[in-house]
Amino acid sequence: MKLINALTEARSSESITLYELLSQLGGLNGLRPSMPPTLLGSKQEEIPSSFQGYVEHAYRENGIVFACMLVRMMLFSEARFQFRRLKDGRPGGLFGTEDLKILEKPWPGASTGDLLTRVMQDADLAGNFFGTVRGRGKSKRIVRLRPDWMTIILGSYSEPKREIGAWDLDAEIIGYVYEPGGKGSDETPQFLERDEVVHFAPIPDPLASFRGMSWLTPVVREIMGDKAATTHKLSFFENGASPNLVVSFDKDMNPDELKKWLETFKENHEGAANAYKTLVLASGASADVVGSDMKQVDFKKVQAAGENRIAVASGLSGIIVGLSEGMEAATLANYGQARRRDADVTLRPLWRKMAGAFSTIVDVPGGAELWYDDRDISFLQEDLKDEAEIQHKEAITIRQYVDAGFTPESAVAAVEAGDLNRLVHTGLFSVQLQPPGTSMPGANGSGGVPALPSGE
Q1: Using an 8 Å Cβ cutoff, are 170 and 156 in contact?
Q2: Closest Cα to residue 396, out of 87, 93, 404, 433?
Q3: Is residue 286 located within the same domain as residue 297?
Q4: Residues in contact with 91: Cβ distance below 8 Å, sequence separation at least 6, in sequence order
Q5: What pLDDT is recorded for position 245?
């Protein structure tokens, strides 16, 4: 009961120690990095630095953020889970067991792709994905936990009675607390053991020991700028695709006449429906253009630069996302290079970290590790061609080693490990290496097979 009361009255922070939790000094705002204020005088609404803020003001309202996240989710969700054998510290082949069933069918009607889509979505928006397993038998399923309702509890198993801070040398995660409905809700907080929770945080927060950071955080300004540019474009067309005007009047004009004149002017000249009409002024009025139109500010390049920065932060190339800057340089060679770059630099590291995170809820066989299988992903088919060429060259090398008298097993091991010290020789040599008249080692007990007489 004390734990529940402490959570109910807790303030916000990244993660809390057990001591702080019991002292009612913890919190839930670990997924809300501080954000600088908007520029003075800016009319662009600031994006709240929270999970819900990123969802409402970035993911749902910005087409570039949505496009980058959509491509990340679609590509990331193509992988499958497998186990990978380990031998002498080196990775081997992939295999599967029944223990992977929970990842293949995470909840009723869902597949691994559905699970990974949610994993990437939460990691992108909150910097963290949390999940746990509920039920038994046929009802066993993975439950997604809303990231901004989670609290990381820190402590020390070696010194449980000592106060532990987030940067203490003995600090480690001892559990998580989940508050359905968020801080201040009437729902009872639930404590989860460390081994019950999947915690995927692909981008570490440098000011925290265990939580992650959203890739949206560094480019919030770019997102706000892109939204402002889109708003400017919309306003430009809503106002009849014309620049701003300042209309001046004679100083002696009667206020009532001025008011009536303005009403008539707005009715006949404002809005897209009145675009391209001839502007006629009277009563000593004159019109002057103020500000810059889209051509003068080079609108396309200005907006494209912001789009490119957002794509770079997402870890994807503009040509892969389909942004204008990327498509201008789109060629078959450029696309292939961009695809290879995104796969090697972004996707594979994400899959590797994802496999490590989900190993907490899967029974991993001895001598193996939880891994990912990307062999059936069409986006990476060009990589498979490269792998086939490498395997062909390796097969030639193995054949040469065997022809030279090394055992097939040691030849394969040496090529896989890149270590020639693993080669084991049989003592037998290719006949081309035998001088004329030399006896070859045999199995007849006489120590060898007599050489053929010269000329026979």
Answers
A1: yes
A2: 404
A3: no
A4: 84, 85, 371
A5: 63
